[in-house]
Amino acid sequence: QVVLVSGHLDSWDVGQGAMDDGGGAFISWEALSLIKDLGLRPKRTLRLVLWTGEEQGGVGAEQYYQLHKENIANFDIVMESDAGTFKPSGLGFTGSAEARDMVREIIALLQPINATDVYDTADGTDIAPWMRDGVPGASLRNDINKYFWFHHSQGDTMTVQDPNQMNLCAAVWTVVSYVIADMEDMLPR
């Protein structure tokens, strides 16, 4: 059984793509690194995917989906960060009402950093095929007031990234992915 965390690496038409979507890749990698460094071993596999081809119609994600859809029943949740890594407020979530209630309980653990909101839907080109076929999905929600200042511009460089805000985003990703991966049962569909 798999909990998938992800970002993509293909928005580098100009600039460096550090915020879009390097930030999503960074926090996904960091989540797994933190869990490993803490010596935690969840019941389910945590899998990191760094998507390609999102800007070209999601061809990388579609290829991955085609290769793994026969095991769709074993995917517990698919998570994608693709809206920068500014101060997090919580998660967008797509899934059953029962699963949403469970996610609300999990995200409440992040009250010390004020990242406890659960929004109506998850967004993400790369996880859309999974959610369409009933796999619960989550996307990072954060303060995107400055997102379009840098999105697909020469200004999208590492100087956009605030290490403290990225750490908070990584905390959200780490807590949610680990707790779901370590629950007794998968999220209800």
Automatic annotation (TrEMBL):
Instruction: Kindly list the organism's lineage.
Output: Eukaryota, Metazoa, Chordata, Craniata, Vertebrata
- Keywords recorded for this protein, A-Z: Carboxypeptidase, Endoplasmic reticulum, Glycoprotein, Golgi apparatus, Hydrolase, Lysosome, Metal-binding, Metalloprotease, Protease, Secreted, Signal, Zinc, Zymogen
This entry carries the following GO cellular component terms, namely: endoplasmic reticulum; extracellular space; Golgi apparatus; lysosome
Q: How does it assemble?
A: Homodimer. The monomeric form is inactive while the homodimer is active.
GO aspect biological process, one term? proteolysis
- Peptidase M28 domain residues are 1-173
Instruction: Please tell me whether the keyword DNA-binding is annotated for this protein.
Output: no
**What GO MF annotations does this protein's record show?**
carboxypeptidase activity; metal ion binding; metallodipeptidase activity
Keyword Protease (UniProt): yes
Q: Which organism is it from?
A: Copsychus sechellarum
Similarity comment text for this entry: Belongs to the peptidase M28 family.
Subcellular location(s) per record = Endoplasmic reticulum; Golgi apparatus; Lysosome; Secreted
Descriptive protein name: Carboxypeptidase Q
